[in-house]
Amino acid sequence: MTQPDALRRQPAIRIDVYATLRDLARDASVLTPQEKTFIDAPAQGMAERLSWRVEAARTLAWALSPSSVSLGPAEGALDVDNLVHVRKAIGAGERLSLRPAGEILDLLDMTWWQHWTTRQAGGAACGFSPDIVMERHAALNWLTGFDNMPDTAWDEIDTPT
């Protein structure tokens, strides 16, 4: 599968997301319906929107990391080191465990307030990246089941504020 024209204009990190999804597409069971649609017929807006999902993945990787690993502020530059570490640990058969519920719920609380603030301020005016905050909120709501039914699909996770 070749890279679509719409993605050739995207920053390198976003292109890498497409390459990763394309490689995962060999096992379609690991992709969500939105991701499958993207692989089949990528569109410019969808490429950018789905590329932010790496922030949700990074949040889930944080939840599986030792307490010494920090998620960092929700304000900009992408740092995928922890995501890479968790992926390598999984590949090596290393046993990972979920952080204590209190840590996860503390981050959910902070993220909820950050998301509320970005919505009230109309975007990044509050100093947070709205995209990072939204993806973290979605990942944490999925992980905790907050305000979503247990069988809610990943693509349908709600992030109310």
Structural overview:
- With 161 residues, the protein is mostly helical.
- The protein folds into 2 domains: 1-51, no CATH class; 54-154, no CATH class.
- Helices cover 57% and strands 0% of the residues.
- The chain is built from 8 helices and no strands.
- It has helices spanning 5-8, 12-24, 33-40, 44-51, 53-63, 81-91, 101-121, 130-144.
- α7 runs antiparallel to α8 (130-144).
- Pfam families: DUF4272 (PF14094).
Task: State the domain count.
Answer: 2
Low-pLDDT ranges: 1-15
Overall body shape = globular
Helix amount, in percent? 55-70%
Number of helices: 8
First CA to last CA: what distance? 39 Å
Q: Main beta sheet, described?
A: none
- Compressed to H and E, one letter per element, the order equals HHHHHHHH
How would you describe the oligomerization state of the chains in this entry? Answer: single chain
Beta-strand proportion? under 5%
Q: Name the structural class.
A: mainly alpha
Q: Please report the total strand number as a whole number.
A: 0
What is the averaged pLDDT score? Answer: 75
Could you tell me the radius of gyration in angstroms? 16 Å
What's the helix and strand layout?
Blueprint: H1 5-8, H2 12-24, H3 33-40, H4 44-51, H5 53-63, H6 81-91, H7 101-121, H8 130-144
Helix pairs in contact: 2-4, 5-6, 5-8, 7-8
InterPro entries: DUF4272
What does this entry show, briefly?
The protein is built from 8 helices and no strands.
Feature tags:
single chain, 161 residues, mainly alpha, 57% helix, globular, DUF4272
